[in-house]
Amino acid sequence: MGTLGLLLICLFLLTWEADPIQGAGARSVTLPESLLFISTLDGSLHAVSKQTGDIKWTLREDPIIQVPVYLTEPDFLPDPNDGSLYVLGGKHKEGLMKLPFTIPELVQSAPCRSSDGILYTGKKQDVWFVVDPETGEKQTSLTTSSSESICPNSPLLYIGRTEYVITMFDTKTQELRWNATYNDYSAPPYDEKLDYKMAHLVSSGDGLVVTVDRESGDVLWSQNYGSPVIGVYLYSGDSLRHAPHLSLAIETLRFLTFSAKDQAEAHSSLKWSYQFVKEQATAQAQLVPTLYVGKLDSHFYASTSLVHHGVSLLPRGLILARIEGPVTSGVTVSGRGECEITPSTDVRYPPGSTASKKNHWLLIGHHELPPVAHTTILRDFPVSLQHSTEKVIPPRSTASSDSYYHQHYFQKVSGIHGNPESNKEGADGRKTVQTPRPAAALPISLTQDHLTLAVLTLLLGGWLVFVLTCLLRPTQQLTVQRQREEAFETHPQVIHNNNQTNASVSEDVTQSTDTNVTKDSPPSSTDSPPSLNSHSSNIPDSEEVSAAAHKTTEEGFSEEVQVGKVSFFPSEVLGHGSAGTFVFKGKFDGRHVAVKRILPECFEVAEREVQLLRESDTHPNVIRYFCTERDRLFTYIAIELCTATLQQYVEDPASFSNLSPITVLEQTMCGLSHLHSLNIVHRDLKPRNILLSGPGALGRVRALISDFGLCKKIPDGRSSFSMRSGIPGTEGWIAPEVLRDTPGNKPTAAVDVFSAGCVFYYVVSRGQHPFGDALRRQINILSGEYSLSHFKEESNDDIIARDLIEQMIGANAETRPSTECVLKHPFFWSREKQLLFFQDVSDRIEKEPADSPIVVRLETAGRVVVRTNWRMHISVPLQTDLRRFRTYKGNSVRDLLRAMRNKKHHYHELPPEVQETLGELPEGFVSYFTSRFPRLLMHTHAALHICAQERLFHPYYKPPKAK
């Protein structure tokens, strides 16, 4: 009964307010009031039924917390529930500590600084989502910058959400310390005068929600929403309001739930509930508040959670364990996320997990509540950055070395360049513009002195030569550059980058030695506003550019071009594109980068490309953007330097022997899926625009999508883009609908899937194109004539690849799979996942009658799959073993799957000769059957698609859309 006592404590803590349905006797209940709204960490807002918890529809927005993905270890851990901040480590290795302020409080107080030398800047952005409560379709978004008119549709649901962006700058190290975006729904607490009849218990580590009747203790429903639950809301009084919910450890909630369910089954009860006596709650059944540290995608978070006696707690100050967490001998959660037995507190750290580390390591799990850090917010400006009482830019006549330092410092901090006389601060702090003074007349005595006149003439002539040289030098530079470009186009240079050199390029984390405050820093979260974004865009004016460093080498051929923080040698050409665009190998703040130089007539395109890069480059498979510089001649974009293109990878696979084609293609699709999730269509996907990074810290190479010059951002509420700006893409890789001149033709993101399908075949076939040679390629695309002759008819891997590529390059854009569907395709499955799929299918259809729709679909055309009689195509030892226990039908696909499942379950009990025949699990075992029955996997996958909505098959199919 001790476990039952825990729920009494949970329900006692949830002494909250009212259920609008319960108290709605005097009035009718509107549709929104009949729903609960579940907010999850991944940014989804699920509208669910109060009675069952079933999802009615889902509103998908940006994640609640967005932090940089480039950090190798977390410095700050945000709490997605209220924006609290926890800091890791410290000079005394204190472990986790809580900061005494939240992200919203910091944004409200910004600009401010803390007593530990951190400067905070912040921005707050409010938005209203106008949603149809029937379908969840977003009608429009209302912000300070836009408010579109909408068609009347009563009732409409108005959901307010606030975005807080915070940036931290460390004055001690002169570096950007951290930045984050925190989203919060506008929802006041529920009215305390009403009596809310439900208690919602949520787990801190996954999306499990258990809803209980507060009076009877009956479990009304339980659902798992796939991502940690951040908030539960009701709709009352035309707005969202917080509903009472309690956060528990995964182990605690599952333990309580399964215990209560077991008790109900033991008493043959139709309903399982948490009915117990308060006096029987022992000390072991008490709930303890803890801090749960979890990881979602690429970032960490921390949230408060209650646990019971059986959950492992990490003591304060423990910072040297592995990031995967401890190994428990007794259990907890299986691979499918189901609690199998009671959690154990017997923690064993793996060998080497307590070794000395250079940096602090963080253990995922439940920690004792950390202490509050002794940090306060100070209102005064830091002494190290106090404004000087002297004029920042003194007059030239009184210039000195000290005043020059102030001038240079002011330019670095404020980003203002050029003539220092043109921008001065007056006594009131405002900038004043100074006009040049007219030249004074020469004294008469000087004009009478012929020697003086001669000297003045020489000085004037020298001054004119100097001016003309300064004016002509940029023109000469441009002429030389273009001559070299023409030479490059006539005799292309092939730049072979050394892998070892470039290994430090894409993963280089060396900080700049510049101690001045700059706007350049690593990438921020996805939707950070440009003013707070970590990417820089320094635009020096013409005078500074004229004085840019041009260092001549001994040969006198190559001049180093320095523009702002970007430098490069024009002779080190990495490649070139359309409209005079060249890419050079260069440096940015001491880091090796690729410098993309764009002509003035393409400035508008460059700005759009930079904007899309800023928005999307937080994904590890999208090229990383660093900064933009500009002079009178060009725009320069500094991006991540890579070792090769996908085209080079295909042409010279020996240089990348450790990189499998499937891994490259999967990473490419992950990057493309990220772009599509942001409503960005690439429109020019081809092997030359997919790059390979240098090996990272673990020796891994990443595939990166690059060249955003033709990208298109599709506005919210739309799914297609117009063709008014011309036909985008490269001939031979353009989808057919882009070239068709038909009324109402509006291409969608499916054009990228088509191009990706061509890239898939190009990689798998080592250089072939599904639509033939370059001369007739685009004509074949328009006519839909393709050839996949590289694939063999009786090869399991080739059949799988053919199935996917044929779907991707289909002429009908509407039938092409989305990027999410492509990533779920068996083409990317390991042998282990294939075996799990066969096992799950066999378990699912085991009790199905022969005439059920699932079995009928599975057996349809099954004769070709089993090759008439599958028992005739297996080895003799296995045939003999199968006859020992039961009868299998040789013409049945279901019986073949059942035989595979049984032999897998009893593999270690099989005779040695049978084990030797089948091979090792899972690689040899799966290959044994798929090599003999190459159509088995794709046939089974297609037949079981009717079960895609079942939770068992969510790992194998794209989850159905919420209705």
Automatic annotation (TrEMBL):
Record localization: Endoplasmic reticulum membrane
Keyword tags: ADP-ribosylation, Apoptosis, ATP-binding, Disulfide bond, Endoplasmic reticulum, Glycoprotein, Hydrolase, Kinase, Magnesium, Membrane, Metal-binding, Multifunctional enzyme, Nucleotide-binding, Phosphoprotein, Serine/threonine-protein kinase, Signal, Transcription, Transcription regulation, Transferase, Transmembrane, Transmembrane helix, Unfolded protein response
Any one annotated GO CC term: endoplasmic reticulum
UniProt feature, compositional bias: Low complexity: 521-537
PROSITE patterns hit by this protein: KEN, PROTEIN_KINASE_DOM, PROTEIN_KINASE_ST
Cofactor names: Mg(2+)
Segments of skewed composition (Polar residues): 495-519
One GO biological process term: IRE1-mediated unfolded protein response
Catalysis: reaction(s): L-seryl-[protein] + ATP = O-phospho-L-seryl-[protein] + ADP + H(+); L-threonyl-[protein] + ATP = O-phospho-L-threonyl-[protein] + ADP + H(+)
Topological type in the membrane: Single-pass type I membrane protein
Enzyme class: transferase
InterPro entries given in the database record: IRE1/2-like (IPR045133), KEN_dom (IPR010513), KEN_sf (IPR038357), Kinase-like_dom_sf (IPR011009), PQQ_b-propeller_rpt (IPR018391), Prot_kinase_dom (IPR000719), Quinoprotein_ADH-like_sf (IPR011047), Ser/Thr_kinase_AS (IPR008271)
Stretches assigned to the KEN domain: 831-959
Signal sequence range: 1-18
Domain Protein kinase, residue spans: 568-828
Biased composition (Basic and acidic residues): 422-431
Segments of this protein annotated with the region Disordered: 414-433, 489-558
EC number: 2.7.11.1
GO molecular function, one term: protein homodimerization activity
Protein name from the UniProt record: Serine/threonine-protein kinase/endoribonuclease IRE1
